[in-house]
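User: Hi! I'm working on a homework problem where we have to compare a predicted structure to a textbook description. Could you give me the structure for the chain below?
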Amino acid sequence: MLASILSRRCVPLASLLLGACLSAVHAADGGPSGHEGEEPWKLTTGVYAVSGGGQQSAQALDVNLRRSGSFGNGWIGWYRQNSDGLTQWRAGWDRFFAAGPARIQPALQVASGGFFGATVSVEAGQPWFAGVGAGRTNLRPYVNLNFDPNDMVMASFGHRSDHDQVQLLLIADNRQHPDQRHLHLNWKTDRDGGEKLTWDILAKQGDVDGEHIRRVGASVTYDWPRWSLRAAWDPKVNFTPQNMLRLSVASRF
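Assistant: Happy to help. Predicted structure tokens:
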């Protein structure tokens, strides 16, 4: 069931750490939001399909609206799945700060049902860079739309040039499931006309119902100045028996 897959973990804040490593240099050069030169609003609609593992297949819809500005990034999201009608609202905020040679990004998130979570990441270096981060939640029930471990520690290392960025990012659970970890290899390249292409290869390992698994997943994102498309394949999503296919489209305005 999709409810069990998306509720076993708590909050999609670890993805903000990944985003921090992907765009911190732009924030340091352009402004606190990390999205200078883009339209301030971004509306993203995602559909998720899970199957396999001897369990019922299901689908879900996620809608997210983000506003970027001098305050950073604020957003609100709504999620609903078709298998049992589970619905949840959530909202969050994050912002980049420059502190000497370091780039710091705190993030906060709340959700219906009494959930609260927070992360912080720190990164330094150019063109070679390295970063660390950590996240904590209050462990209240939450639909995990991040898919990485979230009560966690993180380390990253990579290189940026004028048009490309490559990085390794390790996210490891350090609270309830210390055996579970994700290793991302991310490549982002700028193309002509303000377009961007991003590949993310995921290697994951950890226990799933008493069995230690190792799997490889991937996502690809293509950005135009006003639109973006993303497709992702995540085996044993959130360390459950089922696999997930995710498709999303976003519009900036």
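For your comparison, note the following. Residues 14-30 form the longest helix (17 residues). The radius of gyration is 17 Å. Good luck with the assignment!
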